[in-house]
């Protein structure tokens, strides 16, 4: 448990320093039992330099929709599923997928790719909602893959 707290704390500091997002947003995200599409869009798009930190969740969702990465039928307040968050991470950071993702880039294969790359760890399901601390830990692991530092 102590190791988990230390790792989560390190990732929190790395994410805060790397993306310069407000403490209130990150605190709210960490306390969240279900990250919304708007929160996920803001977190990932700011971290990947696709959006400025002065934007809000509504603007982040609008940009996500313009890129074609928004889950079908989702609104800014819809809880994001693990497969959709995986697809967002893959696209925002330009991660290369495996054979199936290369031919059929979709949330399903993005989830499978991040699971095999150990970005997604532990028990999970593509249709489960993403909790706040998982979203930040996954983002930190993507930073490791991409070689992004503070």
Structure description:
- The protein is an all-alpha fold.
- The protein has one domain.
- The protein contains 8 helices and no strands.
- α1 crosses α8, α3 packs across α4 and α5 packs across α7.
- The longest helix is centred in the first third of the chain and has 18 residues.
- It is globular.
Topology:
Blueprint lengths: L1 H18 L3 H9 L5 H11 L9 H11 L14 H11 L6 H5 L3 H10 L15 H15 L4
- Unreliable runs: none
**Alpha-carbon Rg, integer:** 14 Å
Largest sheet: none
Proportion of helical residues? 55-70%
Q: End-to-end span in angstroms?
A: 25 Å
Number of domains: 1
Oligomerization status of the protein chains: single chain
Pattern of helices and strands: HHHHHHHH
Strand content: under 5%
Strand element count: 0
Question: Overall 3D geometry?
Answer: globular
SS class:
mainly alpha
Q: With helices defined by DSSP (H or I, 4 residues minimum), what is the helix count? A: 8
Quick check: average pLDDT? 87
Descriptive terms for the model:
mainly alpha; 8 helices; 150 residues; single chain
Q: Briefly, what is this?
A:
This protein is an all-alpha fold and 150 residues long. 60% of the residues lie in helices and 0% in strands. The protein has one domain (2-146).
